[in-house]
Amino acid sequence: MRRTSRIIRARRSSGTPAATATPRTRRAVRAGAAVVAGVLAVSLTACGGDDGGGKDETGGGADETASTLTLPRLDGQSLEVAAVWTGTEQANFKKVLAEFEQRTGAKVTFVPAQDPIINFLGSKIAGGAPPDVALLPQPGAVKQAVEKGWAKPLGAEARAELTKNYSQGWQDIGSVDGTPYGVYYKAANKSLIWYNAQVFENAGASEPKTWKDLLTTAQTVYDSGVTPFSVGGADGWTLTDWFENVYLSQAGPEKYDRLAAHEIKWTDPSVKDALTTLAEVWGKADYLAGGPDGALQTEFPASVTQTFTGGDQPKAGMVYEGDFVQVNIGETEAKVGTDAKVFPFPAVGDSPPVVSGGDAAVILEDSKAAQALATFLASPDAAGIQAKLGGYLSPNKNVPNSAYPNAVQQKMAKALVDAGDDFRFDMSDQAPQAFGGTPGKGEWKALQDFLKNPKDIAGTQRQLEADAAAAYGN
């Protein structure tokens, strides 16, 4: 899976995320993430030990009402939908597709894709067999699909659902030059650290609020006999997420926007500061499950399950990643809210970071059936189905908050909706895929090398800048 979904600062040249955000949206985003961070911090603290579902008492979302969405009959028609989702995430999305089949009579086939999905789609299109709809995990990929002439604009019905159910920022980020192409079906809060509650209790560790506190907590866990962190370094995107949270909090939102657009170089002192901060964790081999070599051989799903397997003696006490970690926790015996708890990514600078990601449904083969599916995915009907299954957040503001299965997820969903347009989109997802979204290349590879050798900060910066300059064309 890929993490996975926010507002883009426009890049001035081609080959990168388009200037899709309106001036109003950019002003809203530049207002900062502090408000969202505050809401999130209060929310997660408030739901500390509760893993129950049921009605949410905090508000947010719409009341559960009968569906008003009308879909056409599509008997005899078939669709292919491609996404990089695997495991439980894929299985849950197939249940959404099954509901679409039941309502319309269409036949929908899920096509497993690989990262980078643009390359996967390119080979499919070259072979004359593109999927009808693809879930693209980067704004840059949406723009590339438009530039290549693959993506088709959303029709009137899908646009009406977007207007009704999404904030302006979420509409803008799925648009290119003002034309809507993408429905952001899935969102992610990527500023969370999950922990084994029994490990913390045994160690006498507390939830940290600042980076300095996090280092103290890590040492406390280490002193209790448990390795502090599990890192899924085999998947380079997890490492870019670590960097982005540190950089956003430490350097601030304005520099974050400029680095995302490559308006400042990766050799900038602010990047050096962020890498130096990261090395305070990555540079301590005993803090990483399996050491650096072990982390580089650990894929994201395993980084989660090994944190919540083994009772109070797991391979690690904490794992960083987004709300979707819940899907993988569900593959263990741990229960979210009791055995598995979560706190916001600690503040490195003045404010805690709030980094988002997401996946947009884009039509590649225009048809009545493809447009109907995009309309369905833009509705609270579709998102509500997957919300109930857990491990999922929707930016759709009309999904009932009570649809989410536990108090932890209800609070995160409410924080996402309440945030409106005040957040930062995943930086690597804004970059050209050659830099920010390709296994074994660009930022993914440079940060994997840095995890292996955190002392080489200058060399890492030079490599990042060389790869970025080549990918951005400047």
What is the structure about, briefly put?
This protein is of the alpha/beta class. The chain has helices at 23-30, 34-46, 87-104, 117-126, 139-147, 156-165, 168-173, 197-203, 211-223, 236-251, 253-260, 269-282, 291-296, 300-305, 325-329, 368-377, 380-389, 407-419, 427-430, 433-436, 442-452, 457-472, and strands at 78-83, 107-112, 133-136, 175-176, 179-180, 182-189, 192-196, 229-230, 318-320, 340-344, 355-363, 424-425.
What does this structure look like?
With 474 residues, this protein is α/β, with parallel strands linked by helices. The protein folds into two domains: 23-50 and 58-189 and 362-425, D-Maltodextrin-Binding Protein, domain 2 (3-Layer(aba) Sandwich); 192-344, D-Maltodextrin-Binding Protein, domain 2 (3-Layer(aba) Sandwich), CATH 3.40.190. The protein has helices at 23-30, 34-46, 87-104, 117-126, 139-147, 156-165, 168-173, 197-203, 211-223, 236-251, 253-260, 269-282, 291-296, 300-305, 325-329, 368-377, 380-389, 407-419, 427-430, 433-436, 442-452, 457-472; strands at 78-83, 107-112, 133-136, 175-176, 179-180, 182-189, 192-196, 229-230, 318-320, 340-344, 355-363, 424-425. α10 crosses α12, α10 packs across α21 and α21 runs antiparallel to α22 (457-472). The two termini are 30 Å apart.
